[in-house]
């Protein structure tokens, strides 16, 4: 069901802390009579965009790649890490050599991290463990498997609890960087092509609101740090470091790292198609820039 011309443009929001800077101030810039914000986990947003239930969304990089021909990317917006990401974590119950031949439990909430793990297992470790998909509960996952992949806020809280447990932890962003030399982009913002063609002005308004929110958030992290401490726990020092170690642009370095990820995913048969990234162009902004 696509949105009619007179219906609000629906914007999907991943409500993990890692996406907060892009969205924190955006809603106040998007009038409610023209725009509606929906918060869901990544997998649900990916599905809703594909079905036309929402028009623009932050979404997992892998889900974008699966349907890239139908979408345009909003320029210079992403959730990326140059190295350590702190919220895409593999918790090991057994020594790594046992895990590589054993069983890994994976969260069902994001395809990007799951397939990053599969790429690293196959091409970096030259290993083929078995995988089982479970709800994101570390204790339940480790009862069934030798290691568990958690993402987002669940991973962060599990990493705090792990101080008492002492499980070995592998940060997939850090491992990807040490192997490839590139950062990793976990989420992008995409719009359905038909919406970009039908109402480019509305898409430009969303792009401006998200870009402004990103820039304002990163100039002063305190409101986000306070919100994170109140909602998720932890110390201000942790959240300051967390937001500083993430990157929200999508420049040539981020694009090169993600292109390599897509190539590896295609090589392993995880992605059926090669991916060409195409971007929404805000013609009004280009016109102003050229005048």
- Shape category: globular
pLDDT averaged residue by residue: 92
* Main sheet properties: 6 strands, mixed
| Secondary-structure content class | alpha/beta
**How far is the first residue's CA from the last residue's CA?**
39 Å
The CATH architecture of the largest domain: 3-Layer(aba) Sandwich
Radius of gyration computed on alpha carbons: 19 Å
The stretches of 5 or more residues where confidence is low (pLDDT under 50) are 286-291
Find the CATH topology of the largest domain. Answer: D-Maltodextrin-Binding Protein, domain 2
Helix content: 40-55%
* Strand line-up in the sheet with most strands: 2-1-3-10-4-11
Number of strands: 11
Strand content: 15-25%
Task: Determine and state the CATH class of the largest domain.
Answer: Alpha Beta
Please tell me about this protein's structure.
It contains 14 helices and eleven strands. The chain is an alpha/beta fold. It folds into two domains: 179 residues, Periplasmic binding protein-like II (D-Maltodextrin-Binding Protein, domain 2), CATH 3.40.190; 93 residues, D-Maltodextrin-Binding Protein, domain 2. The strands form two sheets. A six-stranded mixed sheet has the order 2-1-3-10-4-11. The protein has a five-stranded mixed sheet with strand order 7-6-8-5-9, sandwiched between helices. The longest helix has 20 residues. It is globular, with a radius of gyration of 19 Å. Its EC number is 4.2.1.151. This is Chorismate dehydratase. Belongs to the MqnA/MqnD family. MqnA subfamily.
